[in-house]
Amino acid sequence: PGIPRHTNRLIKEKSPYLLQHAHNPVDWYPWGQEAFDKAKKENKLIFLSVGYSTCHWCHVMEEESFKNEEIGEILNKNFVCIKVDREERPDVDKVYMTFVQATSGGGGWPMSVWLTPDLKPFVGGTYFPPEDGIHRVGFRTVLLRIAEQWKENKDALLENSQKILEALLHSSEIRVRGQESPPPSKEVMATCFQQLSNSYDENYGGFSESPKFPTPVNLNFLFMYWALHRTTPEGAQALQMALHTLKMMAHGGIHDHIGQGFHRYSTDQHWHVPHFEKMLYDQGQLAATYSRAFQISGDEFFADVAQDILLYVSRDLSDQSGGFYSAEDADSYPTAASGEKREGAFCVWAAEEIRTLLPDLVEGATEGTTLGDVFMYHYGVKETGNVSPMKDPHQELKGKNVLIVRCSPELTAAQFGLEPGRLGALLREGRQRLSAARAQRPRPHLDTKMLAAWNGLMISGFAQAGAALAKQEYVSRAAQAAAFLQRHLFDPTSGRLLRSCYRGKDNTVEQSAVPIQGFLEDYVFVIQALFDLYEASLEQSWLEWALQLQRMQDKLFWDPKGFAYFSSEAGDPSLLLRLKDDQDGAEPTANSVTVTNLLRAACYSGHTEWVEKAGQILAAFSERLQKIPIALPEMARATAVFHQTLKQVVICGDPQGADTREMLRCVHSVFSPNKVLMLADGDSAGFLYRQLPFLASLERKDGKATAYLCSNFTCSLPVTSPQELRGMLCP
């Protein structure tokens, strides 16, 4: 390695993704005024490259093109080159991705876009190979053609970019069109259920053939649909679809059976061969979804998976300050001596390795059976590898196995003449030994940036699992992370959230020279996390902070003309468009989650204007919700919450009393998606009593912890037994 030949301005950045490019021959600039000024002054086009640190094709394009001296020279001579980490600047990414999708019909990362000096896009794409091939133009050719165009036809290019921008402005607008009311929830729910069941895979679960994504937004919608139609065949079908999908995912190779947690998505229909990166936002949402599955079904299998995810995050994605890291990469060096990284190298196994690690004969099994035989049979391991060449275009997984549960415990036990009860311990021993062997391998790259939004999703995962599984340590971990947000990603003087912070030298937490201000999704996911954390811990300070952040969100992002919230705030001249996302994807879109946040905020504060805002968001998205709710399953779910009216479950009692705890345990053990929980502890000077005068009239019956079910601040008769309370929560 020695001294790098090149160093560019990215060396001063904090983002792990930008730092990966600091020694390219390309003279990269970060997104900012210095680069914009240079483009204007020298009248040069801008080449904008957007990616993120765990993106496989971003690594490929860097290796092939951005490390190539000749391509570096062409770029430096003709363009001002800007590198953006889309996880730091989702606003910049979204503007230009909207353009790339509109003009090329597809999108993805790395995203490559060429802009005029005033930042208007005129041509774009994703990954380009370095040289021309039979079907694709190479990156070098594209660069030379574009530079030529700029010399010869500058005016035409500028005029064209202006037209493109106007078309984008027009097509990306989401607003209320005349009709002011939210769409009817029955129809929206029914259409969304229909669209999901049409795309459902009966055999393997999930909602597409391949690739298959773990879409928690779809599963949460189905749980809600079941809760509203428990006694109908459709309700039963919705629940079956969700639970079967969660089971198949947990058995699949998308689930890391040795190192815990879930990979990003599966390349095949069977959840078998994944893209191996692990993202924080998936772990947070899946921990919550598996906890709900346990609440509904009572099946310990789902509780175990939730705990498995939280073990992974606590061990591998946690900073000592309490924050959570963003992601682990898919690619790593197969051995310490390897010269190049391979996708999945950290996670896959040759049959030979497993035999060597698990040679012990198994007592009580068919003669000659080794632990390796049992393990390999159960996890679908083949001598020649179990990855089909179709799913391995670069032959990185040749001869290797991705573990996938192929048999029920009963079947595996029967195959080797074992008592079924003994299998669990044998498999556990096998997993532990493989885990110890894997710890000797070089680890994949860890993206140690900490994002407010994704930390919010993870706090919700810990808080909801803590409540549903009655595990206090998860609630404490959620509180530790919320305290981290307050300390490192919140500015108490301005009352605003920050987007990101970073692990610095000596494990300190660092901030960039000019901190990135929080976006809509940061506010929305953090507010949701604080409500979840209040319900799990009943610590009122989290509630107070949530309502303060909600008021700030309204101020920075609300669109008073067209309704709903913009993704980014006004006043940044380098952003050509203020957009509103309209798709619940790997993460739910912020406007979808904020509908439920606003309804919860109104219940805790008595401010009914928040209910009105929730209705206005649904009205703004009304057309999409009625035609293709499958694109917005989280917002479809929220229409039901809106029309059902949230029930306030108030427990009056001493927080330390055993009777109060028993009542709370009852509330947490029931899946009741349209309720908010609050504890009336009798402290009339406390935050909740000041917000909600009606609490003062509720009292403990016969001195016992007492529950009331209230709707619009009007309450039912009091109950003092958990059985009665359960009956009220599950009508």
TrEMBL record:
GO terms for biological process: carbohydrate metabolic process. It comes from the Eukaryota. Residues 7-168 form the Spermatogenesis-associated protein 20-like TRX domain. Pfam families: Thioredox_DsbH. This is SPT20 protein. It comes from Ardeotis kori.
